[in-house]
Amino acid sequence: MSRFTDTWRSHLLSTLSGSSDGRPHWVDRIEQGSDAGFFGPESASWAVHGGLPTMVAGIRALLLQTLHPGAMAGVHDWSRYREDPLGRLSGTIQWLITVTFADTATARRESARVGAFHERVNGTYTDAAGVVRSYSASDPDLLAWVHIVFTDSFLACHSLWGDPIPGGADAYVGEWAQAGELVGVIDPPRSAAELADVLSAYRSAGILRYDERVAEAVRFIRNPPLRRSMMPAYRVMFAGAVASIPAEYRELLGLRRSRLPVVGATGLVLGAVRRVLGASSTSEDAARRRITRLGEPASSR
Asked: Are residues 32 and 128 in contact, defined by beta-carbon separation less than 8 angstroms?
């Protein structure tokens, strides 16, 4: 690779994992585990979360998450995303990757870490009807909303830019329900149809709303403090993320779909990133080494 490509690769890995070589310290725990984990190499979750469309899915999920005033209050009141946006990103990625690829004990410990943080996040917010309500990040409703927009975003983006999912969309939604339950989601959707129905129910109930806090968060997500060399690719992926959001939610967010062919352009950007980063991540490679060491079958649970 050229010197520019090497530098860009290092910057990208630092952004995504917090480590310039793409192997943060917690990857060691993935390699050390004692079983095949909740999913396994042939699972829908490995296929989706091991794919590069996750880069766009993360943007999409963050945008949709802002529409719930309770979730937005937690981000506004407690998150340090303005001061340390990459720290928040890497923390979320750590949970996602650990639950996907680690053994079950490590996945449970990581989920407990996230749950302990949620217990500290609480306050009040004004709902869409103007009623002041208390919130906690561990509230079942808020946990469910975050899980739903996460699952919907990763599924939608992989459907647009990824390879076929083993078992299809229903397999992914059903598997990832396990991850939701690990952090306290009660009765998460287990099929693509259930997922769509629950997401629609939030909008139909008048729970979602747009206000200045949402506008501020959207502006930040549109123009995060990334290195200048990364911004052209990011802007394409942001436009792709917006294009992947159904019109009714784009309108709530105050966003418009670009008239340019951004879906195709996003695919080209992801292809270029794949050539720079390689076909698999250090986390997936570590998980495969663990499973080979244990001699366990690669079956999904």
From this structure: no
